[in-house]
Amino acid sequence: MTTDFTSTSHTAFSHPGHPPATTTEHRGIRYLHLGTKWVQGAMRLDKPDAIELEYVQMMMMWMLFKTQPKRIVQLGLGSAALTKFSYRRFPDAAVTAIELNPNVIAICGAQFALPPNDARLDVREMNALDFVLDPANHGTVDALQVDLYDEEARGPVLDTPEFYQACFDCLTDDGIMCTNVFGDFPNYDKNLQAMELVFDAVVWVPEMEDENIVVLAFKKSPSLDFSDLYERAAAIKKQFNLPAKNWVNGLKQWMLDQQ
């Protein structure tokens, strides 16, 4: 996603050695950029804890299958939308966000209402690959959300079978990974094939408006009972105000397309 709005630069968010974090604002929405036109996240100013972008909402599709996660992890902070939502709406869960760029962490605290770390929230400046390779994290994550893009947004910056194997290793026995696949067309197949080498089941749902595809990768293949999923979607809509019925429709369409 791109914007043509005037960018407001913040010198405090241009630590050397990393892309600068900048913002634009339009019609009450603040957008995050890494020094380019590409949108890396967004926040509606009068609803700072809501998830604004459709594909980011879709990164919560794991909620169709898990209701009481104990640990939620984001690889890639973006505008902190997933981190804030998980922290606020799942009060019994520990939430960890891994971000390599200190400028992103700084601007999220100053401009995107990211709360400071506490007993449940742990935002770390580190490489996502180091996190997933660390044996201390293996078997500990119920929901893993992966959205790793550099300033050019041509495709995920980590996309090898070895990376996805490490993500698999971090999940609990019935853990789920949600990942965003966006960029040049060859990246779609490359990432999907790498995930399919590792995970028990891999399904994907295209976003309606842009070119993002959100992938659900299951450590253990689930049973897809669509009556149960639609019931769960209605509960998610009521409690969290997320368009979960669209997610189930997307999963249903995916199944039809595979036949």
Would you kindly provide a written description of the structure presented here, covering whatever features stand out?
By secondary structure, the protein is an alpha/beta fold. The protein has one domain (49-258): 3-Layer(aba) Sandwich (Rossmann fold), CATH 3.40.50.150. The protein contains 8 helices and 10 strands. It has helices spanning 54-58, 81-89, 102-111, 128-133, 161-170, 186-196, 226-240, 244-258; strands at 22-26, 29-33, 41-44, 71-75, 94-99, 121-125, 141-146, 171-181, 201-206, 213-218. Strands 6-5-4-7-8-10-9 form a 7-stranded mixed β-sheet. Strands 1-2-3 form a 3-stranded antiparallel β-sheet, with no helix packed on it. Helix 5 crosses helix 6 (186-196). The chain is globular and about 50 Å long. The model is unreliable at 1-7 and 150-155 (pLDDT under 50).
What brief labels describe this structure?
single chain; 259 residues; alpha/beta; 7-stranded mixed sheet; 8 helices; 10 strands; globular; disordered N terminus; SAM-dependent_MTases_sf; Spermidine synthase
